[in-house]
Automatic annotation (TrEMBL):
Histidine-containing phosphotransfer domain (HPt) contains an active histidine that mediates the phosphotransfer. It is found in: Cytoplasm, Cytosol; Nucleus. Keywords: Acetylation, Cytokinin signaling pathway, Cytoplasm, Nucleus, Phosphoprotein, Two-component regulatory system. The lineage of its organism: Eukaryota, Viridiplantae, Streptophyta, Embryophyta, Tracheophyta. Its main location: cytoplasm. GO terms for cellular component: cytosol; nucleus. It comes from Crotalaria pallida. One of its GO terms (molecular function) is histidine phosphotransfer kinase activity. This is Histidine-containing phosphotransfer protein.
Length: 194
């Protein structure tokens, strides 16, 4: 294999099909032919991270974790407030933990104060709607119906479902934010989904 661009003192090559990775550069070619350096490996990583971010966010919307409200929230973020969405979602996470704990304590009381429980669920439904947490919001709507009919078993099931949906949402959003941070650290821009 010949390298066209200049002399190199140190060469590390990994062969993967027709793609070669040389030190910190991405190169392509066939054995026995000269190769051209196409672009830095960091650009390849950046492009991959941006695609993963778009795919992950689209998947979260398609699976109903998020709705258009989350996209509207992202549109409020700009260069003057680069961490706006992360800050809002972090507050949502804190509120979620508190409200889920309050609901759990309310269900452990004897007798259960369904009006107080409903107040917590109502607050969580509004908080979820404001950040676009669609599946959490939808469970809250069912939970409120069980509060209205004072159905303890239904309320307990809804709390368990809320805890599960919240956990899934939090893990997915944390992954989304890690991808965003990797992209920004590499000097890239965050792709938007319309």
């Amino acid at each position: 294999m010949k390298i066209v661009k200049g002399q190199l003192n140190f060469i590390v090559l990994l062969h993967v099909s027709e793609i070669w990775i040389h030190k910190h550069m991405y190169v392509a070619g066939k054995t026995g032919r000269s190769v051209q350096i196409l672009f830095p490996l960091s650009s390849l990583k950046l492009t991959t991270w941006q695609r993963q971010l778009r795919d992950h966010q689209a998947s979260m919307i398609r699976e109903g974790f998020l709705d258009d409200q989350f996209i509207q929230l992202q549109k409020l973020q700009d260069e003057s407030t680069p961490d706006f969405v992360i800050e809002v979602i972090t507050m949502f996470f804190d509120d979620s933990e508190n409200l889920l704990n309050n609901m759990k304590r309310a269900l452990e009381q004897s007798p259960v104060d369904f009006r107080q429980l409903d107040a917590h669920v109502h607050q969580y439904k509004g908080s979820s709607a404001s950040v676009g947490a669609a599946r959490v919001k939808n469970v809250c709507a069912s939970f409120r119906n069980f509060c209205d009919t004072q159905n303890l078993e239904g309320c307990v099931r809804c709390l368990q479902q809320l805890q599960h949906e919240y956990s899934l949402l939090k893990n997915n959003l944390q992954h989304l934010f890690r991808l965003q941070q990797q992209i920004q650290a590499a000097g890239g821009s965050i792709p938007t989904i319309e």
